[in-house]
Write a structure and sequence with these properties.
A hairpin with a 2-residue loop joins strand 7 and strand 8. Helices cover about 20% and strands about 25% of the residues. It is built from five helices and 13 strands. The protein is globular. A five-stranded mixed beta sheet has the order 1-2-8-7-6, covered by helices on one side. Strands 3, 4, 5 and 9 form a four-stranded antiparallel beta sheet that branches. The chain folds into two domains: about 180 residues, 3-Layer(aba) Sandwich (Rossmann fold), CATH 3.40.50; about 45 residues, no CATH class.
Length: about 240
């Protein structure tokens, strides 16, 4: 889920060096593309979300009750945070404190901006960068910091991430959520990306070197079968 108003809010009222809404959304987009899945980019005003099994909505700064209702009606697993629903339309704080999301008994009691040279260490060895929220609520903790604070929590089909995960942590997090939602994935090597249509599976190599391929089994579904995937430059030169 991408929201232009959240980007404008990030520019009008910046908080924390290095935290930018577009960069946060793109951070998730890159992790999902590297997992080899198709991605639909939707607006917070989208309806009929029942076709999705998994929806990522990081940092959408305002979610109305109507928008929350559409998300809840989808039955998808929904990933929120950080900064989800942190502001009202008038740039105030929600009366019940963020994220104030239906079905998620959670409040952000305190926030930390993290300078670029620092981080909050996670218990699993990862890091939180730029921004970290202190959470309180009746949720299951999926990940915590080294000091024992909740970093990722879950309630039914809702997941809230309290900070900006570094690349390895986000890759693992995204993979776990797709696995839990039953979304098939194929982790791509650096520079290689995958698109799937109703009749074909297409691999595009953006790196400067060819990739050895072990995907000959995709031939039956319409994928061009090859032992080596050329670079985009080589492909265009053919």
């Amino acid at each position: 889920m991408f929201d232009y108003e959240s980007q404008w809010a990030s520019e009008i009222q910046p908080q924390g060096q290095g935290f930018d809404y577009f960069d946060l959304a793109f951070h998730y987009y890159k992790a999902l593309r590297a997992a080899g899945v198709n991605i639909d980019i939707i607006s917070p005003n989208a309806t009929n979300l029942s076709r999705f099994d998994l929806i990522f909505a990081p940092g959408v700064v305002t979610l109305t009750k109507a928008q929350q209702f559409q998300l809840g009606k989808s039955q998808a697993k929904i990933v929120l945070g950080p900064k989800t629903n942190a502001k009202t339309n008038e740039f105030g704080f929600p009366k019940n404190l963020a994220p104030d999301f239906a079905g998620l008994p959670l409040q952000i009691k305190n926030v930390e901006t993290i300078r670029p040279s620092a981080h909050v260490p996670l218990a699993n060895g990862g890091k939180i960068l730029h921004w970290f929220e202190h959470l309180e609520g009746d949720c299951v903790t999926l990940e915590e910091t080294e000091s024992g604070l909740p970093a990722i929590v879950e309630k039914d089909n809702l997941i809230y991430c309290a900070g900006w995960l570094d690349d390895p942590s986000l890759t693992q997090f995204v993979a776990r959520q797709m696995d839990a939602a039953g979304v098939a994935m194929e982790q791509m090597p650096e520079g290689l990306r995958r698109r799937e249509t109703s009749h074909h599976v297409i691999y595009m190599n953006y790196s400067p070197e060819p990739h050895q391929s072990s995907w000959r089994d995709h031939h039956a579904s319409g994928c061009l079968s090859a032992e080596k995937i050329a670079t985009a430059e080589q492909f265009l030169a053919l």
